[in-house]
Amino acid sequence: MTDGIFIGASVDGKPQTLELKRANRHGLIAGATGTGKTVTLQGIIEGFSANGVPCFVADVKGDLSGLAMAGSPTAKTHATFAERAKAIGDDGWAYADNPVQFWDLFGKQGHPIRTTISEMGPLLLSRLMDLNEVQEGVLTIAFHVADKEGLLLIDLDDLQAMLAECAGRADELTVTYGNVSKQSIGAIQRSLLQLRTQGAENFFGEPALEMNDFIGVDDKGRGIVNILAADKLMASPKLYATFLLWLMSELFEHLPEVGDRDKPVLCFFFDEAHLLFDEAPKALLEKIEQVVRLIRSKGVGVYFITQNPIDVPDTVAGQLGNRVQHALRAFTPRDQAAVRSAAETFRANTGVDVATIITELKVGEALVSLLQADGAPTPVERTLVKPPASRVGPITPAERKVMIETDAIGAKYDTLVDRESAEELLAAKTQEASAAAAEAKATTEAEKTAAAQAKVEAKVAKEAERARVADQREADRQQREADREAANSPWTKMATSATRAASSSIGRQVANEIGKQVFGTKSRRSPSSGGLVGTVLRGVLGGLFRG
Asked: How far is CA 414 from CA 113, 217, 301, 397, in A?
């Protein structure tokens, strides 16, 4: 371990060293395509790792994966590198690897990186999605309600389900928290859809990344180099911006204030930074500026690698104290402006005409100005940059696979965990409500059916009773009619007369016979009269027989 990182040597043999104490003052590596930026970047990362400083680098082209493997004497660049090391007096230069961990938001070329919606928080999501104040307020209400009701917001499905729940309860929530309009919720849902189309569902989930796994050293005390596969990620600028916004915010919140240390806690390297700034939303630019200004006190150094120094916003570029400028081509007015800008930002050196030399630099050469131990920048020097000890160019897929399977992380993040969260709980709640409503409806329908059936049965019974009464009345009427007809028929009259006559004759005979038995002699009167007793007896007996 040394007090600095050897960058290279000037044309007069003066070593150019990046002071570790000043490495958290950030830096810039710029230059046209093919001028040696990646080689310079590899050498600086190797220096940080060798001094026990963990690093993070976004690998846009895939060639930075070579940091994981030592260079080879059979490589095409070996002769050039050997000559350069000899020219700058680097007698100890030798090929060596670096401890590397590969990461990939899509989980294809490295360990997945995930975080939860809750950890991202409503403020960062609002800035990321460029929401207005009203929409940001509605999103904050959704987070608050979820927290109050114990609904975990882990992935995009959870957040979308929570927003739908808030839309359904808009009237209720408006009374408690303020206006919750369905229009605002719709706008938020559309912004989430844009994130989803760029693959954000791969980023939100569990297990969430632990910052301690980003900041560590190997068993030899070398800082771990975390390489993010960003070749496919750059095609999804919103997702890339989401990740960087979250990562820098997490580091800012996770790391304690340490002031000026002997060396940084962590160094960030954003390769092809012009792609980041070109596609980044305003919220990300503001956050980067804030982080660059404030994260120094957390012991973190941030370095941007880009083709043109004017690609970096002035508010950010003004914070970059360590500068390595490779050749620029002044073919266009914009290129010429970049040359002038670069020349003006270096500390002047009477022996170096920056504006002229910057267009004449060879591959592997750079104009270098680094912060000294007292914090002042060194005068700009034309420098031959140190060759890297690791492989220049990407590793093979088989080599990458071995590295992923054998690093310290292991399979900790490889399997997605889908535990019960807001989406499942709200879906269960909806199902319960639907089931209760269906049951209530079924009960109501059954009651209606039973009532209707009872009404029909009562009506049928009433009609049956009416029919029975009518039948009985008809039967009685018919019986009376039959009785009248029978009473008025000639045969009935003849029979009645005969009966009466017979009854009268028999009565008289019985009376006469009784008279004979009682009085012992026949009445002297006419048989028709029979005397008083006969008359009485005839009347009684005649009545009996008639009856």
From this structure: 9, 21, 29, 17
